[in-house]
Amino acid sequence: METELSGRHGRQADGLQDDPVGGTVCHFWTSPPGGQTGPPVRWLGQSDGVRHELAAPGGLPRGGSIPLMRRLDELNAVGADVAPEALAQSAGWLLPPDLAATTTAPQQTLLRQFAFADAAAQIYQARRRQALISLSVVAPTAVAALEVYKDGLGPQLWVGVLAIYPLGLLWGVVRVRGVRARGDDTRQIDYRALAEGLRIQLVWSLAGIDQDVTDEYLHTLRGEFQWVRGAIRAVVLAARLQAPDLVATPRLDVVQARWVADQRAYFQRSVVDKQRRARRFDRVVGAFLAVSFVASVALGPTRVWAAVTSAGAGWDGSLELFGALALACAAALAAVVERLHLPELARQHDRMFLVFRRAEAWLEPMIAEADPASAQAVVAELGRVALHENAAWVLLHRSRPMEAMGV
Chain centroid to CA 278: how far? Predict the structure, then answer.
């Protein structure tokens, strides 16, 4: 009990960034007949060296009283939304069924939990994308309604059109608060970090590397993100209950083909895709700005010409509408692009492509010449680099929370 509460099995931290990795203890009170008695079950935690007893009505603490349990409860609740096909697809991306069937029981546990975290991250990624698209429509729609109202409409329409502007802004605020309250924006980040940690833990196990991912991962992200490290430890503990040792006969050829080569190809495709999308978005934003500029330049002469000749009446209102709407569309689209982080991710993935390509080139002769020690050293270092890259990805996405565009 003492070693679990204090963390790291009672040892001092290995480095300045190493936090105690303890946990909550369920204490069953036992005593000899006639000895000291107490509650049959109590839950203990320790923070900053101070032990405290957690409130546990009925003998079991509510998830909200323990951050790790609360976040795990939230993750488990996503299980109803994860289809079996999605789990199979996520697992197959790392290990196809024929290879997965040849792994050990602990490795299969790691693979199942990785697939679950990966599928959950995809669910919230889709929800975040839908929220971004819907929020990007708020500002252009509100601006268009206001401009149309200014041009004048029949008495049956003007009230409804004018109401679109404040209602649109109100909807944007409510939508953002709903996204944040449900955690749609942050859960994708959390579950992607959990999936990456479990992926590296499984890869290290397949490579015969007896290291704990939690000793390398997310040191720079404290607070709520500590639950990810705790969740990985819980999965590793469940895997070790099936067999004491996570590592077995090294399968470096599988690691090379199903992780190193696959990740190298993914980062290579990702760089090209993100650079192409960034250029496309830049062109579209530039086109909207050009339309707004042309409309604003033409607005003055059009109004003068209409005042002098009484011709072209109504064109000035249309130009004003097109100019304002194009400017609002450019601003909303630029806000979406900013939250997609395309240029930053392209640079980050380009670096990771080079790292994985170099590792792939190094591992090939090591595996061919049956030099497992050198190959394991490369895989261990590559895993740490991938974990640090994922932590940078988390920080990048956490730096720009979702908000209503133009509100």
Answer: 20
Is there a single domain that holds both residue 198 and residue 278? Answer: yes
Within the chain, what is the greatest distance between any pair of CA atoms? 109
To which H or E segment does residue 89 belong? helix 84-94
Domain boundary among 61, 90, 106: 61
Cβ(204)–Cβ(245) under 8 Å? no
State the Cα–Cα distance between residues 24 and 4, nearest whole angstrom.
Answer: 7
Torsion of CA 217, 221, 224, 226, to 10 degrees: 30
Rounded to the nearest 5°, which phi and psi values hold at 15? -150, 175
pLDDT at residue 65 tops 70: no
91 within a domain of the structure (yes/no): yes
Please report how many Cα atoms fall inside a 13 Å half-sphere around the Cα of residue 219, on the Cβ side.
14
Chain segment 167-188, per-residue pLDDT in tens: 766 776 777 777 676 767 788 8
Residue 194 has pLDDT above 70, yes or no: yes
Verify that 43 and 161 share a domain, yes or no: no
Asked if residue 142 and residue 17 are part of one domain, the reply reads no
Q: Tell me: the pLDDT tens digits for 196-225?
A: 999 999 999 999 998 888 877 766 665 556
Nearest CA among 145, 155, 241, 227 for reference residue 193: 227
Helix axes 184-206, 158-182, angle to 10 degrees: 30
Rounded to whole angstroms, how far apart are CA atoms 16 and 37?
A: 41
DSSP 60: S
Give residue 11's pLDDT band: very low, low, confident or very high (50, 70, 90). Answer: very low
- Residue of 350, 345, 355, 361 lying closest to 381 (CA atoms): 355
Say if residues 127 and 144 touch (Cβ distance below 8 Å).
no
pLDDT surpassing 90 at residue 258: yes
Q: CA 40, CA 59: separation in Å to the nearest integer?
A: 8
Shared domain check, 278 and 192: yes
Neighbours of 17 (CB within 10 A): 10
Which amino acid is present at 374?
S
Give me 189's structure tokens.
């980040």
